[in-house]
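Progress against Task 2.4 (sequence-to-structure conversion) is shown through the following example record, which the project officer requested during the mid-term review.
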Amino acid sequence: MDCTKTPKSICFLIILFKKEQEKSVIFGSRLKSRQLDSIVVRNNDGVDLRSIKLFYEKDNIFTPTHRLYLERVISGDELYVFSYKDLKFVPGYLSQRTDHWGFLNKDTDSLINMSDVDLYYKSREPNPQLMSCGVLNKIIYPTRGYTEFEYEPNECGYVLDETRTKLNKKTMLAGGIRVKRITSRNYDDKVLDYREFFYTKGGTSYAKAYSSGILGGLPKYKYSNYNLKSADGQISGHVDIYFSSNSTNYGGMNALGSQIGYSSVVEVLSDGSRIEYRYSNFDTNLDDPAEAMLYGTRTESAKYSSKEMERGLLLSKKHYDCSNKLTYSESNNYGIKEKSFVPAVYSRNYFNTKLQEASSYKIYTYLPRLNRSRTAVHYEGDSIVNEILIDYNSYCQPVSLSKSVGSNEAEVTEIDYLWESDASAKSGFLLVPETQRREYIVSSGSKKLKSVEGIAYQKINPYLYAPVNIVTSTQGYADCDTVRCGYDSYGHLIYQEKSGGKGTVFLWGHSSQYLVAKIENADTVSVKRIIGKFDDFARQLKPDYGKITELRKELGNSAVTSYHYIPGIGLSSTVKPDGKTEYYGYDKFGRLEYILDETGQIVKAYKYNYKRLE
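Structure tokens generated for the chain above:
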């Protein structure tokens, strides 16, 4: 990137921290944390445009080993207050008071001899009374209304077997918490809205149904008689394996870094209606075993190819009203174009023995893509059904979308991408732009072209492709409308013109951050003759509005609109082609408050209120 073209900032974001606190923790090590104190938006003249101040729970600020808890946020005259459950029980850093999954389970530190594994295991069991300590349980808003959060322990109904090939039915606490209820109240404690969650199968008996939670494996700290072979394959033996005090077996994960996932969740709303969600889980997507094992023998700690990216996907959603009538349903299917992966090998030699183990496995890098979504609205025995089918290329970009619009009719869109015609475009670009989009109507087996849009691109800089020609037709490939575009070195649009006529020229300013003028029915040559180079004009910290006034005089057949700004806030005034000016005023939060005409009369006024849920 050419650093000489980097514009000067016209607005600064300033983040202030409290002085570093050194926090002494156990084992003689030291942790340091920095407390975010405020966020200030300030303009070039040193004037604060906006500020946010943050305050923390007082007891924890001066306790070196404790975590910081945000207590208040002040933005202007708006105050937000946060409260947490039982902060007095929250331990310091590197505490030993945790269960198998790292959640609080006791109120004092204790170190247990790992030689007594059974006792150690019991010391790591979940404690439902303590695992929710320190979590957010209330937010108070500037209106004095508030939202309360209630939690309950995670509970599973199934546990993945140690072989990772089947599920075992087992009810147990799984560590950590889940949301039980969210309640919103107004300033006088009247309930405005609440949502309650049940992690069970759907149906009318959801409140008493069996948990849909699946635990990704039981914790294990020692294997006895762990059978292995020596490197030459001649000696068989066993060892006792201890894992570190804060680790379990190599399994244990369900999806998205959580040890448990729920196949079904029921959300009950305040009006008595409910929504039933169903998600992919181990019951639909088990992991793949290791590709190969040393000597072909599987050991308990063998690696596996995790498919956690295929779990936690929304499979279906159903809405029922308070009388248990189905009003809306949705079902989703996902596909995998190519199972991309990174090959990996795990090996382990055991100290003072000739015993070893090894396995090869895959680290999957693909992501499932939605390829079919079906929705239906149900009313009095009838249903309106819509279905969308999506196909992807090898880069996971949609190349075909089909949407049903009737029982025998569908709208189909086909998309081509730039890399198909320019191989260099697919290297180094996260989003490769479209070059052509074709829309069809498919009815009773026949396919009729409805419209075509083709786009040609220019490489503006090493990081940006921009459209320079856009061709659109609503009559097949005949009678095309063409729009040509040009850009400055920053990628800003500076002109746009249709075939057969003059176009519109755009001028930028304030260090190339704001559009300052739009000149309709003009060409770039005439504009450049007055303002000079587009890049030089845009780079100015304060635009030369005198030259824009000159454009109005010299280009008599053009319509010139100019825009004036308060940097960091927004548009302050607009001068229209007829010379009349419109002014804009903002409140202290930067929201548009009024619009004035050139005589100072209010044309429009805006008021902002918090929405009530009664």
